[in-house]
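Hi everyone, sorry if this is the wrong subforum. Our group has a chain we'd like a structural model of before ordering constructs, and none of us has done structure prediction before. Sequence below.
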Amino acid sequence: MKNIVLIGMPGCGKTSVGRIIAAISGMAFADSNRIVEEETGLSIPEIFEQEGEDAFRIQEARALEELGKKSGLVIATGGGAVTREENYASLKRNGIIVFIERDISLLAREGRPLSSGSMEHMYEQRLPQYRRFADLTVINSISAEITAQHILESARPLT
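Answer:
Right subforum, don't worry. Here is the predicted structure as tokens:
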């Protein structure tokens, strides 16, 4: 069974939606940010503060490479996973990549190191990458539950 890989802006609902998909489908859930935190012993904001974004992106790429070798997972990626080209191969290896699109005004920002600046600028920079990585795009505008159901219905023919 292929993985369902969730990409999108920080705060778009990847983790919330991913947990719901996992609960409904019986698939295991994995959050690449949590894996990086467990492996480093630091929170994402601490990694950014102490070691910088590049160090975080290296750790994130390692986590995504390992997750991509597995199957039957729902994987929530970090919002910037698309900024490193090598992550595409890791995520696509055994996965259906779903871009969760959400209006910028609805994005959660608390505890997200790169979300304190201009979200519009970040969105403009990343949107082409999200679209290029994605096999499927789903808008998260109503609820995480409805978004999860929509992803399951849309991804089923692809898995």
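For your construct planning: The two ends are 7 Å apart (CA to CA). The mean pLDDT is 87.
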